[in-house]
């Protein structure tokens, strides 16, 4: 499973989403200047990263379902 490059990229994309989400939650919980300055940018990055992760997940499901 880990020798499949598509699975590896998918796992990496999911981890990137998790890191962005945790940074955003930490900034939101702390409030202050960091949250005001970076909250919207982090939200945009998370949405883009989630889109890429979902596309990769669908690709893995399709690839595995087609018997390859």
Textual characterization of the structure:
The protein is mostly helical. Helices cover 88% and strands 0% of the residues. It has 2 helices and no strands. The protein is elongated. The two termini are 12 Å apart. The mean pLDDT is 90.
Give the gist of this structure.
With 68 residues, this protein is an all-alpha fold. It contains two helices and no strands. The longest helix has 34 residues, at 32-65.
Give the topology.
Elements lengths: L4 H26 L1 H34 L3
Helix pairs in contact: 1-2
Protein name: Twin transmembrane helix small protein
Pfam family, one: HIG_1_N
Keywords: Membrane, Transmembrane, Transmembrane helix
Helix content: over 70%
In whole angstroms, the N-to-C terminal distance is: 12 Å
Nearest-integer average pLDDT: 90
Strand content: under 5%
Which regions are unreliable across 5 or more consecutive residues at pLDDT < 50?
A: none
Q: What's the SSE pattern?
A: HH
Instruction: Report the biggest beta sheet as strand number plus sense, adding barrel if it closes.
Output: none
Task: Report the strand count.
Answer: 0
User: What is the approximate shape?
Assistant: elongated
Multimeric organization: single chain
Q: Total number of helical segments? A: 2
* Class inferred from helices and paired strands: mainly alpha
């Amino acid at each position: 499973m880990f020798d499949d490059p598509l699975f590896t990229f998918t796992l990496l994309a999911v981890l990137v989403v998790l890191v962005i989400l945790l940074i955003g939650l930490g900034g939101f919980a702390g409030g202050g200047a960091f949250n005001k300055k970076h909250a919207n940018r982090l939200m945009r990055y998370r949405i883009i990263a989630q889109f890429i992760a979902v596309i990769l997940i669908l690709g893995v499901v399709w690839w595995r379902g087609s018997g390859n």
